[in-house]
């Protein structure tokens, strides 16, 4: 390992803040939808 590779700064995330926000919102939306489906399925199972 050379001296220059030890001191090179870690490259930041190349995505813009808007892209990061949009990605996070998609994950949160999918998580919420999965939770709603899970609650629905459990409710149906308890009634049946």
TrEMBL record:
Q: Where, by residue number, does the polypeptide cross the bilayer?
A: 27-45
Alphabetic keyword roster:
Membrane, Transmembrane, Transmembrane helix
Q: Looking at the keywords, is Transmembrane helix present?
A: yes
This chain belongs to which protein, by name? Answer: Protoheme IX farnesyltransferase
Q: Which organism is it from?
A: Novosphingobium clariflavum
């Amino acid at each position: 390992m050379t001296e220059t590779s030890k001191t090179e700064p870690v490259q930041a995330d190349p995505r813009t803040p808007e892209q990061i926000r949009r990605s996070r919102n998609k994950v949160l939306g999918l998580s919420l939808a999965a939770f709603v489906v899970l609650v629905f399925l459990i409710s149906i199972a308890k009634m049946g």
